[in-house]
Amino acid sequence: MPALGTVARALSTCWLLLCALAGSHQLSITEFAVPSTVEAGNNAELQCLHSDAERVDYVKWWWTPMYAASEDKNRVLLYQRLTGHTPEIPKKNVEGRENDTIVLMDLHSYDSGVYECEVSNVAEVRRHQELIVYSNGTGVELNVSKVEDGPDEDDLEEVLVQCEVHEATPLPDLSIFVDDVKFDNVTVDVEEDSNGVYNVFLNLTLSSDVVADGSNIRCELSYPNHNVSHQYTSEIVYNSGTALSTTETPEDTTQSELASELKNKNGVSNRSRWILYAVPVVFAILNNLL
């Protein structure tokens, strides 16, 4: 009898192992889609299709934030569907769709992180992908001005090039080019908040003989994170007689607006048309008087 009991226990163990192996082979995530990058303010659709839809115990979506403090970088439950129950969605900016698809609404920098789908019956399978929310913030601002000669070997005036961006995410790189030549001797200052938003300031001082009138000065924003391929630029054509800024584009439109008001559809000014009508009338009156 002891031998029979041992055999029975062995068979039972083998049966459980076979069931587990069968479940692990049968259950799989057949389609998984999480975008690697999303521009701030847009939505993102996350898909997780699995092979055994009728017999899964649950499907869950998790999020591990990228910019949270180290003690807060725990997984956050975004979506949970238990078999026979209505899906639970505890996070406000998440909407559920069919087939356990979720949509992240109006994304911001703090939504960056790792998104994971978990499907379970006897076995359990998981897939995950990092999603980065990117933004150029307030845009690339470029300012160029002449300054007094600094402590160098010449007595020439100098040109100060200032490039900055506010509220950008993730941390961007700023580069300054003059006629497509990149200058590396720049001063960089970075400010960061807790949500992965950055203010970056870049200064470059050049001798005035390096920058001629008509030179193209460009500031370029890119991201060290290779998943974010977007670039933003701001350009100025240098004129030594004025301070230049991309945030100020002064145009004297007074004359053009006045001309537009005075001209009719045929391109003749109202004053000219009045004269054309008045001259024949004057001649007619003079003829009657004579």
Automatic annotation (TrEMBL):
Location of the protein in the cell: Cell membrane
InterPro entries membership: Ig-like_dom (IPR007110), Ig-like_dom_sf (IPR036179), Ig-like_fold (IPR013783), Ig_sub (IPR003599), Ig_V-set (IPR013106), T-cell_Activation_Regulation (IPR051713)
Record key words, sorted: Cell membrane, Disulfide bond, Glycoprotein, Immunoglobulin domain, Membrane, Receptor, Signal, Transmembrane, Transmembrane helix
GO cellular component: external side of plasma membrane
Membrane topology of the entry: Single-pass type I membrane protein
Signal peptide: 1-26
Highest taxon, organism lineage: Eukaryota
Ranges for domain Ig-like: 2-133
Example of a GO biological process term: cellular response to lipopolysaccharide
Transmembrane regions: none
Keyword Cell membrane: yes
Chief place of localization: membrane
Designated name of the protein: Ig-like domain-containing protein
Organism per entry: Diatraea saccharalis (sugarcane borer)
